[in-house]
Write a structure and sequence with these properties.
- With 217 residues, the chain is of the alpha+beta class.
- The protein has two domains: 34 residues; 179 residues, no CATH class.
- The strands form two sheets. Strands 1, 2, 3, 4, 5, 7 and 10 form a seven-stranded mixed β-sheet that branches. A four-stranded antiparallel β-sheet has the order 8-9-6-11, with no helix packed on it.
- A hairpin with a 4-residue loop joins β3 and β4.
- The longest helix has 33 residues.
- The N terminus is likely disordered.
Length: 217
């Protein structure tokens, strides 16, 4: 009987260990998934024919950013995510000309780099809700109906590294791209070329626009 009790006790201990290990695995998996950034398709922002309603500010020239160990070039663009460019409305409010009527702005940052372990740091985000993962991530070119927006030329998103993570505060987001920075083929002239990040903000008022700052580290 004593031997049987010892076997049962040993078996119970093994079962408890397996149970705890299972719990740890279940807890660990969601944490890993939550670190992956949202991938969004340009088709969700509008089509070419509707560009006057959603394209607030077209692509900028590439600007160079350098640190002592890293370099990148970055383009910018501003989208009215609600497709409400004030000047395109049937009865625009003249005092809000040049804005997104709802105060909802999408900022695009297209990055090209040959550096490793690059961090893209975006600050001064007015009206930013970093707790909502849909408010930041990577923009891909996914629609032949929208060929005039900055985006990553990877229509299926299969070449977006799953290791990209984002750290947010109430007014900033930092995208970390570990390892070698990915490269992509050029899209149309308007889509340009590079890994394109997006950030969405909701201002209390349409103007003035709270333009974000961008940098690398």
């Amino acid at each position: 009987m004593a031997a049987d009790a010892q076997v049962n006790e040993s078996g119970d201990k093994n079962m408890r260990i397996k149970f705890l290990a299972t719990i740890l695995i279940v807890i660990a998996v969601p944490c890993g998934l939550s670190a992956t950034v949202t991938v969004r398709g340009s088709s969700g922002n509008g089509v070419n024919s509707g560009a006057p309603t959603w394209l607030l500010t077209g692509r900028s020239q590439s600007l160079s950013f350098t640190t002592s160990t890293k370099q990148a070039t970055i383009r910018r663009e501003i989208i009215c995510i609600d497709q409400d460019v004030e000047d395109s409305l049937p009865s625009p409010t003249l005092n809000l000309s040049g804005s997104c009527d709802s105060g909802a702005y999408m900022y695009l940052f297209q990055v090209k780099s040959t550096s490793k372990n690059l961090n893209l740091v975006i600050t001064n985000l007015g009206g930013f809700d970093g707790s909502n993962v849909e408010n930041y991530g990577v923009m891909i070119c996914d629609s032949p109906e929208n060929t005039i927006e900055l985006c990553t030329n990877d229509p299926t998103g299969t070449h977006i590294p799953s290791t990209i993570t984002a750290t947010t505060t109430t007014n900033s987001v930092t995208f970390a791209v570990p390892g070698t920075f990915p490269s992509y083929p050029a899209g149309t002239t308007q889509q340009a070329q590079g890994l394109t990040f997006f950030v969405i903000t909701q201002q209390k008022t349409a103007l003035p626009i709270n333009l974000p700052n961008v940098g690398i580290k």
